[in-house]
Amino acid sequence: MLRQSLRRLVADQRGTACSQIRRGLATVAGQRNFVKIVEVSPRDGLQNEKAIVPTETKVKLVNWLLKAGVSVVEAGSFVSPKWVPQMADTPQVIQEMQIKSGVSYPVLVPNAKGLDTLLSILSSDSWATRQKPTDEIAIFTAATESFTKANTNCTIAESLERLSQVTQRARDNQLKVRGYISVVAGCPYEGAVDAKRVGQIAKELLQMGCYEVSLGDTVGVATPPEMIAVLDACVQAGVPVDALAAHCHDTFGMGLANVLTMVRAGVRTVDSSVGGLGGCPYSPGATGNIDTESVVYALHKEGYETGIDLSEAARIGDWISNAIGRLNSSNAGRAIIARERLQKEKAKL
Ligand SMILES: CC(C)(COP(=O)([O-])OP(=O)([O-])OC[C@H]1O[C@@H](n2cnc3c(N)ncnc32)[C@H](O)[C@@H]1OP(=O)([O-])[O-])[C@@H](O)C(=O)NCCC(=O)NCCSC(=O)C[C@@](C)(O)CC(=O)[O-]
């Protein structure tokens, strides 16, 4: 039933249902059932908070996420503190957080200056006898000129040129590079976005050396058919489904539907944030990322594995929401916390 409706959904997209997406559908019940969760709360989740979150809270967040079984934690960003003051302490965070073998800790890098700062930290003698805090950066561009200008003060072409140099140097220094494209299905300044343009940019990011491209519905306006159209355009441009990730914000409550649709279509990497924290400073009105708790709950129910302890994720989401004075916006998280409280009360009787 599910597979039938997905097939219909994909086929509806301009009649261009592609073989890679169909292959993704064929795996729904089976073999490739591990979905990698990229936990973005320490960066995307916190970057938009007006009050500066103490460094120790950020470090505790990363460390607790490790205990929950997360294998990729976006630890912060090396962007201009004039643009995003909340991320100014990323150098401290990555030097104080626990480093667990097998876990990746990508950090956002927008330009040569950000990479210089990261490389100087990584070249410190203090790592001579222990594992370096990260072996991965994330670079970012966008599918519209207005958003690229607002977010990184340049045109798309200039941003790709700049990022190509950053990528080359990062790889020369044994750093893996993940790419982001923002506003793939709707822009706060320009409205509708051409999916083909997203496909071309995704291809350019792969060609410059990114191992993965995360498709960002930054504004949280996309619906499942629109995300499938973006996926389809990327595949048509020559980008394998395996190299794509879904990064969905939940502004219109479509985040989980979008993520599940992308996973059912073959995508195996999903970005999410405990407590549904998040928002982009240059996407007015956009709310947080889709919450990790709902994503993990739904994926586990559908038979996928994530390696994440759902109860632990719910506790972290609840704690960090309280710690920064926000309501916990994860429905699944709140439900799990309430259930656990009830069980504890029952046990006392
Ligand atoms: C790209 C720039 C730097 C251009 O900004 P600019 O103003 O054009 O840069 P500039 O080169 O003219 O430098 C201006 C000042 O910033 C400093 N500077 C310059 N670069 C750095 C750096 N790396 N680290 C520290 N300082 C830096 C530089 O030294 C200078 O300082 P001054 O001389 O005036 O004292 C700026 O636009 C920027 O930092 N943008 C980042 C904005 C950002 O972080 N946005 C959120 C992340 S993206 C996102 O959330 C979307 C995503 C990824 O989640 C996916 C999705 O949901 O869509």
TrEMBL record:
Enzyme nomenclature, EC number: 4.1.3.4
PROSITE patterns, sorted: PYR_CT (PS50991)
CDD domains: DRE_TIM_HMGL
Record domain Pyruvate carboxyltransferase: where: 35-314
Keyword Lyase appears in the UniProt entry: yes
Protein name stated in the entry: hydroxymethylglutaryl-CoA lyase
Keywords noted in UniProt: Lyase, Metal-binding
Pathway noted in the entry: Metabolic intermediate metabolism; (S)-3-hydroxy-3-methylglutaryl-CoA degradation; acetoacetate from (S)-3-hydroxy-3-methylglutaryl-CoA: step 1/1
GO molecular function, one term: hydroxymethylglutaryl-CoA lyase activity
Family matches, as InterPro entries: Aldolase_TIM, HMGL, PYR_CT
PANTHER family: HYDROXYMETHYLGLUTARYL-COA LYASE (PTHR42738:SF7)
Native organism: Tilletiaria anomala (strain ATCC 24038 / CBS 436.72 / UBC 951)
GO biological process terms, semicolon-separated: ketone body biosynthetic process; L-leucine catabolic process
Protein family per UniProt: Belongs to the HMG-CoA lyase family.
Gene3D superfamilies: Aldolase class I
Reactions catalysed: (3S)-3-hydroxy-3-methylglutaryl-CoA = acetoacetate + acetyl-CoA
Pfam families, per database record: HMGL-like
